[in-house]
Amino acid sequence: MSNLPACPQCQSEYTYEDGALLICPECAHEWSPQAAAEATDAARVYRDAVGAILQDGDTVTLIKDLKLKGGGGTLKIGTKVKNIRLVDSDHDIDCKIDGFGAMSLKSEFVKKV
């Protein structure tokens, strides 16, 4: 089975290499593998628990209680987090929560306000 990416235009899985280009036999679209890799890195979309797109500076609320490691307490459901910053890691939101300080959250546990 081929490990080539699907066509970015028609999503066909039957792409093939021709020199330095990738070609789709169904729609005749040609692209370079480097351009496809850069486009997927630049186009990362962060979504909250209900599917809304998150951006830097958004305000979100927690949708479940979260226990903090190290005996720091619990963040309660409905806690509002202002001015989030999105980062590319396992915990994709960096924020500062009043009374708890700076921490990282997963976008699957928040809802955009």
TrEMBL record:
Gene3D superfamilies: 2.20.25.10, SH3 Domains. SUPFAM superfamilies: Prokaryotic SH3-related domain, Zinc beta-ribbon. NCBIfam families: phnA. InterPro entries: YjdM, YjdM_C, YjdM_N. It holds the Pfam family YjdM. Belongs to the YjdM family. This is Protein YjdM. Residues 4-32 form the Protein YjdM N-terminal domain. Residues 47-113 form the Protein YjdM C-terminal domain. It comes from Oxalicibacterium flavum.
